[in-house]
Amino acid sequence: MIKRELKANLKSFIIWLFVLVAMFLLVYLIYPYIITDDSMKEIDEMMKVFPPEVLKAFNMDVTSITTAYGWFKTEGFMFVLLIIGIYSSFLGGSILLKEENDKTIEYLNSLPIRRSSIITNKIIVGVFYVILIVLLLGIFNFISLKISGDLDSKQFILLSITPVLIGLPLFGINLFISTLLNKSKKTIGISLGLVFIFYVISVLSEISENVGFLKYFSIYTLADTRNVISNIEINPIMVIISLLITVGFIFLSYVKYNKKELV
Amino acid sequence: MSDVVIELKHLKKYYGKSRGIEDVSLKINKGEIYGFIGPNGAGKSTTIRTIMGLINKTSGNIFINGKELEFDDIDVKRRIGYLPSEVNLYGDMSVKELLDYHESFYKENLTKRKNELVKLFKIDLNKKIDDLSLGNLKKVGIVLALMHSPEILILDEPTSGLDPIMQNAFHDLLIKEKEKGTTILYSSHVLSEVSNICDKVGLIKDGKIVKEDTIENIKKDNYTYLKIISKDIENIKKELKLKVYKENNNEVVFFNNLKPNELLSKLSKYNIESLLIEEVSLEDLFINYYK
Lengths: 263, 291
Prior knowledge:
The complex is a heterodimer. By secondary structure, chain A is mainly alpha-helical. Helices cover 76% and strands 0% of the residues of chain A. Chain A contains twelve helices and no strands. The longest helix of chain A is centred in the middle third of the chain and has 33 residues, at 115-147. Chain B has two domains: 4-219, Rossmann fold; 221-290, Alpha-Beta Plaits (2-Layer Sandwich), CATH 3.30.70. Chain B contains eleven helices and 14 strands. The longest helix of chain B is centred in the middle third of the chain and has 17 residues, at 164-180. In chain B, helix 4 (111-120) runs antiparallel to helix 5. In chain B, helix 6 (164-180) links the parallel strand 7 (152-156) and strand 8 (183-188). The chains are: A mainly alpha, B alpha/beta. Chains A and B meet through helix 1 and helix 7 of A and helix 2 of B.
């Protein structure tokens, strides 16, 4: 069944990976033309217009966007986190529910396979693809940035791992939500909405200290990119919390799916 | 040791407040074909999906080979072949890939049986599931249900979408299965379709089994069409108290189950222009139970 699941989800994986790679490739190709000495001054001027809180939200206070790697660490990485977040959410929301939406569950259920095995196989494939997309994107960016010159390898590697910390919990949360829903296309909206809400909460919590507490309500806090960029380390607490959330929601998904009405 | 293979006892399923099935009890013996007949919405598919564990029963019991069916019992599933009323399969796979995938879930080697069935139903293995017509998809569904030589077959409207030649081939196959000792639950909304192959028929209406009998016994109820043309027709209607099948001015067709002598003595009081008695088709017999 794993082989079948890998194949069934390969197409969307390739599309998402392609979107990410194409986007970064485009930026890397045009970056040398945008960043000249003249434009750098203009960018510096422009940056002064933004309040420091906004710069902080995009990590622009701890890094400069005058190099491709600098851009990657700020805006670029924001896209990585967002798109990998969306991919993981979609995958979690659809990998099980797709069988019900396509009504193939009636066939799958008639086979001599336990529901818990169905869900286990799907989780293995989902987690594999979330990690694989992060890994392949990391390798691609590493090679591209290496070619363009300046790169702090350790910082880059640690930074590139962080999307896993948000991808896995988002996969788990959406998987659980999908076990609560019956045959519906709603999950796309829920998955996308959830990612944006988490993301906006995280940005808001960075911008204003008054609402700093909001960070406890966003999965994106787990990526903790500021800390990774500044201190070149991943906070083990973030890893533990990320795994706990993932495992917790996966556990709930098993419980719920085993009682679910599948038609 | 009883040879009852499938037994349902007061099976009930409610979706929230709306009824799925109210009270379904039936017994199917080993090697028997049981026709599960009822109009759309009567609860046939709900009953079947409850047996298959897709949905959870509200109350009642399901016994397979005398043992109460537990949730997600894959040993039982291994012994069941299931054909849903709407066959939905993985559209991106070819027929061959799907049959191989199916085989991968069973310990035994199913290749021989698979090839026999593919040949019998003239299935094109290289076609993509998405490109199959409804009838061909149904045929693939039949192969999937039978491929692992199950002891129990659960078939939900199996012939919808099949042409008459394939329907016959399918019925012949079921008779062979029955001879091998396979127990078959065959659901359909057309009684005449199953009357030739079923040993027993259960009629389900509004979520309840309203009648269960052999085809012979159902026919034994001796319903006939009774067509009468008479100016006294209103009085005759009151006298006979029979269900009216059709009426047009002075002409009425009744569903009649009165004994001939009783009928004649009742009618003798009236002036009758024309009287015709005909055998009722199984279809109409069926409709008679449901209206």
